[in-house]
Structure formats: structure tokens, C-alpha cells
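Incident log, support desk, overnight shift.

02:14 A customer reports that sequence design results differ from what the structure should imply. Their input is reproduced verbatim below. On-call engineer (initials T.W.) acknowledged and began investigating.
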């Protein structure tokens, strides 16, 4: 069981994460805006981007960005944007829905939008969709579910994997198998 959510920490279960992702898809749908492609930012935007891509039957492109690398991903450093993105449908073009899990300071979202405008001239419109937007953000996404004025650290369910290593995973799965809690 997760600790209680406070102004400094928001704890999110897998069930809540999935529910929020579905609500984000519904918000985009109900807006009436139609897009040609989804571009998700790796790593945090991959899960919601994948789900939205499946729901909307839209091609999914992935662009890697990174600024949280130190201290198990809890310390923000310089933003890196990959030189290339991956997509299965030609080049990025038309109306693009840019998906990430959250907007923290807003720097990543703003710089990626500028990167797209500078490098993908066939993109005609960009709108952004995230689950959470923090109060400290300098930019507001077009679609979001929760505004967090106190800027808490969001503990997402997949963050458990930031600190587990293969040998620890093997030991945990072996222990679960012995107690009958599941098979690998």
C-alpha cells in the first residue's frame, strides 16, 4: 500500500494511472480536435502515448528526451532532445498531438514544440496532452487532467523499476514463486 498523498508527494497506483490515461483520451476526443499523428516523449509519455495511439488508431512517433537522470531520476539536469525520432508512418507531418505524462517546469514541452517547428516543416499544428501539470510550469498544455499547485513529486507506479536491478528482480520473483504469489 502506498503512503498517503500530501502537498509534497502524489502517489499513483497502476489502476489510477490507467484510469487517468483513459480520461485524458476522453478529454481529447470530447474537444473535437482531430489529429494525424501522436508524438510521445520518452520515457514518461510512452505509456499514455501508446494507449492514446491505440484508442484513436493513430500512428505513434517517439522522441526521447531526458533531464531527470541523477539520484534515481529525482534530480533535474540539462535537457537532452534526441537528434532523431522514430515513427512508422513517414515523417512527422500534419496535426500532431504531443503526449507526455506531466509538465513540471514546462521547459521540456516548450523546447520540444520549438524543436518540432524548427525541424519538421510539414507539421501544421501541435497540441499537447498530459495527465498532470504542476503549478510551477511556465506553459500550460492544451489538454491535462490535474493541476498540482503545490508541485508535488509524482510517484508513478513504474518508478519501482528505477531502483531494482536484474538480480533483485530474480530474487523477488523466485520468492513469489515459492510463496505461490505468481509465476514468472
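02:41 Re-run completed on a clean worker. Output:
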Amino acid at each position: 500500500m502506498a503512503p498517503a498523498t500530501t502537498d509534497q508527494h502524489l502517489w499513483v497506483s497502476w489502476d489510477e494511472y490507467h484510469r487517468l490515461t483513459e480520461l485524458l483520451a476522453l478529454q481529447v476526443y470530447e474537444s473535437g480536435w482531430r489529429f494525424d499523428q501522436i508524438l510521445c516523449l520518452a520515457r514518461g509519455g510512452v505509456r499514455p502515448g501508446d494507449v492514446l495511439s491505440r484508442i484513436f488508431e493513430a500512428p505513434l512517433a517517439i522522441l526521447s528526451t531526458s533531464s531527470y537522470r541523477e539520484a534515481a531520476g529525482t534530480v533535474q539536469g540539462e535537457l537532452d532532445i534526441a537528434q532523431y525520432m522514430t515513427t512508422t508512418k513517414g515523417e512527422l507531418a500534419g496535426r500532431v498531438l504531443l503526449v507526455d505524462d506531466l509538465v513540471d517546469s514546462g521547459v521540456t514541452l516548450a523546447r520540444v514544440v520549438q524543436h518540432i517547428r524548427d525541424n519538421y516543416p510539414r507539421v501544421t499544428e501541435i497540441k499537447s496532452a498530459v495527465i498532470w501539470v504542476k503549478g510551477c510550469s511556465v506553459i500550460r498544455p492544451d489538454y491535462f487532467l490535474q493541476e498540482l499547485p503545490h508541485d508535488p513529486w509524482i510517484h508513478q507506479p513504474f518508478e519501482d523499476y528505477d531502483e531494482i536491478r536484474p538480480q533483485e528482480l530474480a530474487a523477488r520473483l523466485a520468492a513469489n514463486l515459492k510463496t505461490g504469489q505468481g509465476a514468472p
